[in-house]
Amino acid sequence: MSLLSIAATLQRAIAELRSAGSESPELDAQVLLRHVLQCDRSYFFTWPERDVPAAEAAQFRALLAQRVQGLPIAHLIGTREFWSLSLLVNNSTLIPRPDTEILVERALQLNLPAQARVLELGTGTGAIALALASERPDWQITAVDCVAEAVALARKNQQQLNIPNVAILQSDWFSEVSAQQFDLVISNPPYIDPQDPHLQQGDVRFEPRSALVADNRGLADIEHIIAHAKPYLTANGWVLLEHGSEQAAAAQRIFEKHRYNEIHTVQDYANLNRVTGAKA
Ligand code: GLN
């Protein structure tokens, strides 16, 4: 096959992705080609007429074919940006979402001690714990996940980012967390209703169900965390949870049922209810 220029390669890929129903064909094509050529955005605009070498062209076509099948971009390139961090990603965990940055932001706004102790439940890639730790080097953060591969991935991210103040361990919610008290328990737990039709669309088809779906219309793990957190909280300790945009009232009711105080909900950047928090 004769060589194609960068511009022609992108043009063909965009057409292919568009006819496969991609919602972001330009971005997908650019991100994948940038990954293969290991270049930055400006390279494409500076050298559109340069040929894509044969080996890279073959690699790009292979990635494109997988994207056409729906595989998440993050899985194809192996990384995803979250907060200010570039995180390794694989199919053992949820792919970090921009929505979750609101959870990090809210945690940073809470009036916590300078050397706060924080517990993150269901850390996946480590995104939330590592973002908090990078912003607050004096906090001591414990992050747990029940999936061994997720623990390994989160530890790898910690190592690569060189963030010392996080301890990552395998635990099914609180099961392996030793008796101690935290100023904040934070989580983006699974919260999708098992019947939700969105589970058949987009990236979620390639993410582990255990990171996405919870019984009781998606509320089972939210309730488990709220019901079991108190012994792990200081007198004024907070619980802060991400949830679906339709679940704020239900999350608030669960906090009320378990007699928490200062229950409040925070909207994400799309003005959707996304995070509910309360004090012990
Ligand atoms: N926000 C994710 C989605 O809707 C779900 C994440 C989760 O269950 N914690 O795809």
Shape: elongated
β-sheet strand percentage: 15-25%
Structural class: alpha/beta
Give the radius of gyration.
21 Å
How many structural domains in the coordinates?
2
The span between the termini is 65 Å
Count of individual helical segments: 10
H/E element order:
HHHHHEEHEHEHEEHEHEE
Helix proportion range = 25-40%
Q: Could you give a short account of the major beta sheet?
A: 7 strands, mixed
Extract low-pLDDT stretches. Answer: none
Give the second-level CATH assignment, the architecture of the largest domain: 3-Layer(aba) Sandwich
Could you name the CATH topology of the largest domain? Rossmann fold
Total strands: 9
Q: What hetero molecules are bound to the protein chains?
A: glutamine
Write the CATH homologous superfamily of the largest domain: Vaccinia Virus protein VP39
CATH class of the largest domain: Alpha Beta
Describe what this molecule looks like in 3D.
The protein has helices spanning 6-19, 25-37, 41-46, 54-68, 73-77, 101-109, 127-135, 148-161, 220-229, 248-257; strands at residues 79-82, 85-88, 117-121, 140-145, 166-170, 182-187, 233-242, 261-267, 273-279. With 280 residues, the protein is α/β, with parallel strands linked by helices. The protein folds into two domains: 6-70, Helicase, Ruva Protein, domain 3; 92-279, 3-Layer(aba) Sandwich (Rossmann fold). The strands form two sheets. The chain has a seven-stranded mixed beta sheet, sandwiched between helices. A two-stranded antiparallel sheet has the order 1-2. Bound molecules: glutamine (GLN). Glutamine is lined by residues 94, 97, 99, 188-192, 204, 212. Residues 94, 97, 99, 188-192, 204, 212 line the site of glutamine.
